[in-house]
Amino acid sequence: MQNRVTKLFNIQYPIIQAGMIWNSGWRLASAASNAGALGLIGAGSMYPDVLREHIQKCKQATDKPFGVNVPMLYPNIQEIMDIIVEEGVQIVFTSAGNPKTWTAWLQEKGITVVHVVSSVKFALKAQEAGVDAVVAEGFEAGGHNGRDETTTLTLIPMVKEQLEIPLIAAGGIATGQAMLAAMVLGADAVQVGSRFVASEESSAHQAFKQVVVDAKEGDTQLTLKELAPVRLVKNKFYNEVQELYKTGPSVEQLKELLGRARAKRGMFEGDLEDGELEIGQIAGLIHDIKPAAQIVQDLMREFEEAKLKVASL
Questions:
Q1: Residue 68 and which of 31, 114, 119, 245 are 20 to 30 A apart at CA?
Q2: Contact 290, 209 (CB under 8 A)
Q3: Which residues form a coiled coil (predicted)?
Q4: Do 169 and 189 form a contact (C-beta atoms < 8 A)?
Q5: What strand order describes the sheet that includes 230-233?
């Protein structure tokens, strides 16, 4: 199927594999791209030299388009952007920052720019900054999230009502049925994160992948809003955060408890007790670990089946 997003990225299906920290290395990105989706390398968990290595390996593993997701809150952002340009990456998804900072600079170098937002306000700011498309991510999503707790079901049509550029829906999408629902609400494509965490090619630790598969409804919670809202699996670390909240902690106390590299410990190294385990609410519908190509095929099969079912109503 072809629409504004598939044409923008030159991909077969309107599916983007999210660029998630500690989960989205070159193996996952290239596998998703080879399957007809758009694979993204998650630069947020990579030092500059590691990112360069992943980009180079991804170019060797696929001749299809792929991109890099760049959270803009890191201090070495200029070095990261320079590497992206030097390595010839054609698509960049930016997040966690002002899109005006890098959009024009990247586009001058022939790069397609997409910005991730969690509200209508920031979607319009991204459009004003000149981005080529917007990802609107609902409160259901894993990892860092919006403060307003707007769900995907309400966010997508509200953004669509005011946006002119292509719109990609994210948050709570792991099935073809959800993909169809998002597109009926006005999205041109979907970005899928949690479902790809539980893929064979994901760089997440096997123990974390199993936590995702075992997760049930209510096993995740949005917390640490004073720092940066993040959706976590309820584990020992999460419980320590909740105990600290009972004391009315300061921002500094929350930062001290969080410390450094908790996400790496949890998702990449498999520390299920003291690590930060980021995953979306949709984990309750993820029951197996499978190849990324199979995930893409399943999404499209379910999407087509759902279309037929809806047509028969």
A1: 119
A2: no
A3: none
A4: yes
A5: 143-144, 230-233, 220-223
Alpha-carbon distance 311 to 313, whole Å? 6
Q: How far apart are CA 285 and CA 265, in angstroms?
A: 25
Residue 44 is encoded by which pair of tokens?
């947020």
Cβ atoms 105, 182 nearer than 8 A: no
User: Domain locations in the chain?
Assistant: 4-203+283-311, 214-282
Map residue 101 onto helix, strand or coil: helix
**Fold observed for domain 4-203+283-311:** TIM Barrel (3.20.20)
pTM for the whole structure:
0.95
How confident is the model at residue 6, as a pLDDT? 98
For residue range 12-24, list pLDDT tens digits in order. Answer: 999 999 999 999 9
What confidence tens digit (pLDDT) does each residue in 272-292 have? 999 999 999 999 999 999 999
Alpha-helical segments (H) within the chain: 4-9, 26-34, 48-61, 77-86, 103-107, 120-128, 152-162, 176-184, 194-197, 206-214, 236-245, 251-258, 262-263, 292-311
What is the tens place of the pLDDT at every residue in 104-122? 999 999 999 999 999 999 9
CA–CA separation, 132 vs 94, rounded Å? 11
